[in-house]
Amino acid sequence: MLHPMKPNRPPLFSLLIALLLSFAAAQAVQYAPAPSPAPKPAAPPSSSKDTAPAPKIEGIPLARNDGRWLGLAVEGGNFKLRFYDKDKKPVKPDAARAAVRWSPQGKIGEQHTVLNPAGNTLTSPLLVPPPLTFRVYLTLLGADDQAIETFVTDLHDL
Predict the structure, then answer these.
(1) Is 0.85 topped by the overall pTM?
(2) What is the CATH code of the structural domain delimited by 56-157?
(3) CA–CA distance, 101 with 139 (Å, rounded to integer)
(4) Are 142 and 133 within 8 A, CB to CB?
Protein backbone atom coordinates (compact mmCIF):
# COMPACT_ATOMS: atom_id res chain seq x y z
CA MET A 1 0.00 0.00 0.00
CA LEU A 2 1.30 3.47 -0.92
CA HIS A 3 1.44 6.25 1.62
CA PRO A 4 1.38 9.94 0.66
CA MET A 5 4.72 11.69 1.02
CA LYS A 6 5.08 14.12 3.87
CA PRO A 7 6.83 17.38 3.00
CA ASN A 8 10.27 17.69 4.45
CA ARG A 9 9.93 20.81 6.59
CA PRO A 10 13.58 21.87 7.14
CA PRO A 11 14.49 22.28 3.41
CA LEU A 12 11.25 24.17 2.67
CA PHE A 13 11.82 26.45 5.65
CA SER A 14 15.41 27.25 4.59
CA LEU A 15 14.23 27.89 1.02
CA LEU A 16 11.64 30.36 2.32
CA ILE A 17 14.24 32.16 4.45
CA ALA A 18 16.66 32.38 1.49
CA LEU A 19 13.90 33.83 -0.68
CA LEU A 20 13.00 36.46 1.90
CA LEU A 21 16.64 37.45 2.38
CA SER A 22 17.21 37.85 -1.36
CA PHE A 23 14.09 40.02 -1.62
CA ALA A 24 15.26 42.19 1.29
CA ALA A 25 18.72 42.57 -0.31
CA ALA A 26 17.15 43.60 -3.65
CA GLN A 27 15.02 46.23 -1.88
CA ALA A 28 18.06 47.60 -0.05
CA VAL A 29 19.97 47.97 -3.34
CA GLN A 30 16.99 49.64 -5.00
CA TYR A 31 16.77 52.36 -2.36
CA ALA A 32 20.49 52.93 -1.90
CA PRO A 33 21.51 56.54 -2.63
CA ALA A 34 22.95 57.07 -6.09
CA PRO A 35 26.54 58.25 -6.26
CA SER A 36 26.83 61.94 -7.04
CA PRO A 37 28.30 62.74 -10.46
CA ALA A 38 31.74 64.25 -10.67
CA PRO A 39 31.71 68.02 -11.15
CA LYS A 40 32.18 69.08 -14.75
CA PRO A 41 35.08 71.38 -15.57
CA ALA A 42 34.10 74.90 -16.53
CA ALA A 43 33.69 75.31 -20.27
CA PRO A 44 35.88 77.91 -21.93
CA PRO A 45 33.97 80.99 -23.07
CA SER A 46 32.76 80.50 -26.63
CA SER A 47 33.21 83.04 -29.35
CA SER A 48 30.25 84.70 -31.03
CA LYS A 49 30.59 82.60 -34.20
CA ASP A 50 30.18 79.36 -32.19
CA THR A 51 26.73 80.36 -30.91
CA ALA A 52 24.96 79.59 -34.20
CA PRO A 53 23.08 76.29 -33.95
CA ALA A 54 24.29 73.45 -36.12
CA PRO A 55 22.06 72.77 -39.14
CA LYS A 56 19.60 69.94 -38.55
CA ILE A 57 18.74 67.26 -41.09
CA GLU A 58 15.02 66.50 -41.12
CA GLY A 59 14.25 62.80 -40.75
CA ILE A 60 16.85 60.05 -40.72
CA PRO A 61 20.26 61.39 -41.79
CA LEU A 62 21.95 59.33 -44.50
CA ALA A 63 25.59 60.11 -45.33
CA ARG A 64 26.47 60.01 -49.01
CA ASN A 65 29.80 58.88 -50.46
CA ASP A 66 30.94 62.40 -51.37
CA GLY A 67 30.22 63.95 -47.96
CA ARG A 68 26.78 65.28 -48.77
CA TRP A 69 23.67 64.19 -46.84
CA LEU A 70 20.11 62.97 -47.34
CA GLY A 71 17.21 63.20 -44.93
CA LEU A 72 14.52 60.51 -45.19
CA ALA A 73 11.26 61.19 -43.34
CA VAL A 74 7.63 60.12 -43.33
CA GLU A 75 5.40 63.19 -43.27
CA GLY A 76 1.66 63.05 -43.69
CA GLY A 77 1.97 59.33 -44.37
CA ASN A 78 4.28 59.83 -47.38
CA PHE A 79 8.03 59.40 -47.77
CA LYS A 80 9.95 62.66 -48.18
CA LEU A 81 13.59 62.72 -49.22
CA ARG A 82 15.55 65.94 -48.74
CA PHE A 83 19.04 66.69 -50.05
CA TYR A 84 21.77 68.52 -48.11
CA ASP A 85 25.29 69.73 -48.90
CA LYS A 86 28.43 68.95 -46.88
CA ASP A 87 27.50 71.68 -44.37
CA LYS A 88 24.04 70.12 -43.92
CA LYS A 89 22.27 72.99 -45.65
CA PRO A 90 19.29 72.14 -47.92
CA VAL A 91 20.03 71.95 -51.66
CA LYS A 92 18.13 71.04 -54.80
CA PRO A 93 17.92 67.27 -55.49
CA ASP A 94 20.65 65.91 -57.75
CA ALA A 95 18.64 62.73 -58.49
CA ALA A 96 15.73 62.64 -60.93
CA ARG A 97 13.79 60.27 -58.65
CA ALA A 98 14.25 57.54 -56.08
CA ALA A 99 12.90 54.02 -55.69
CA VAL A 100 11.90 52.79 -52.23
CA ARG A 101 10.94 49.30 -51.08
CA TRP A 102 10.04 47.95 -47.66
CA SER A 103 8.25 45.06 -45.92
CA PRO A 104 5.53 46.55 -43.69
CA GLN A 105 4.40 44.94 -40.44
CA GLY A 106 1.29 42.78 -40.74
CA LYS A 107 1.48 42.35 -44.53
CA ILE A 108 3.01 39.67 -46.68
CA GLY A 109 5.48 40.75 -49.35
CA GLU A 110 7.18 44.04 -50.13
CA GLN A 111 5.74 47.45 -50.88
CA HIS A 112 7.32 49.60 -53.61
CA THR A 113 7.01 53.25 -54.53
CA VAL A 114 8.83 55.89 -56.55
CA LEU A 115 9.70 59.27 -55.06
CA ASN A 116 9.13 62.04 -57.60
CA PRO A 117 10.30 65.68 -57.52
CA ALA A 118 8.16 68.11 -55.54
CA GLY A 119 10.03 71.39 -55.02
CA ASN A 120 13.30 70.71 -53.19
CA THR A 121 12.25 67.21 -52.12
CA LEU A 122 11.41 63.85 -53.63
CA THR A 123 7.99 62.69 -52.41
CA SER A 124 6.07 59.42 -52.64
CA PRO A 125 2.46 59.32 -53.81
CA LEU A 126 1.87 56.09 -51.85
CA LEU A 127 0.61 56.29 -48.26
CA VAL A 128 2.88 54.52 -45.75
CA PRO A 129 0.71 53.09 -42.95
CA PRO A 130 2.01 52.84 -39.38
CA PRO A 131 3.68 51.25 -37.51
CA LEU A 132 6.92 52.54 -39.00
CA THR A 133 9.05 49.64 -37.75
CA PHE A 134 10.65 48.29 -40.88
CA ARG A 135 13.80 48.51 -42.97
CA VAL A 136 13.77 50.79 -46.03
CA TYR A 137 15.83 50.16 -49.18
CA LEU A 138 16.37 53.42 -51.07
CA THR A 139 17.89 53.77 -54.55
CA LEU A 140 18.65 57.18 -56.08
CA LEU A 141 18.04 57.23 -59.82
CA GLY A 142 19.50 59.59 -62.42
CA ALA A 143 17.69 61.08 -65.43
CA ASP A 144 18.57 57.95 -67.46
CA ASP A 145 17.06 55.68 -64.72
CA GLN A 146 20.51 54.40 -63.77
CA ALA A 147 21.20 53.86 -60.07
CA ILE A 148 23.35 56.61 -58.55
CA GLU A 149 23.50 55.40 -54.94
CA THR A 150 21.72 52.93 -52.66
CA PHE A 151 20.95 53.14 -48.95
CA VAL A 152 19.43 50.87 -46.30
CA THR A 153 18.01 52.25 -43.05
CA ASP A 154 15.58 51.33 -40.30
CA LEU A 155 12.57 53.59 -39.94
CA HIS A 156 12.25 52.94 -36.24
CA ASP A 157 15.06 55.53 -35.89
CA LEU A 158 12.52 58.26 -36.71
Answers:
(1) no
(2) 2.60.40
(3) 9
(4) no
Q: Which residues pair with 73 in a beta bridge?
A: 80
80, HSE (Cβ side, Cα atoms, 13 Å):
15
Distance between the two ends of the chain, CA-based, in angstroms?
70
Instruction: Please provide the average confidence, as pLDDT, over all residues in the chain.
Output: 81
- CA dist 36 and 40 (Å) reads 12
Beta bridge partners of 60: 72
In tens, the pLDDT along 35-91 reads 556 666 666 655 555 566 778 899 999 999 999 999 999 999 999 999 999 999 999
For residues 131 and 102, the answer to whether their CB atoms sit within 8 Å is no
Instruction: Give the pLDDT of residue 131.
Output: 87
For residues 39-56, one letter each, b for 16 or more C-beta atoms within 10 angstroms of the residue's C-beta and e for the rest, the string is eeeeeeeeeeeeeeeeee
Max Cα–Cα distance, the chain, nearest Å: 95
Q: In terms of residues, how long is the chain? A: 158
Distance CA 94, CA 85 (A): 11
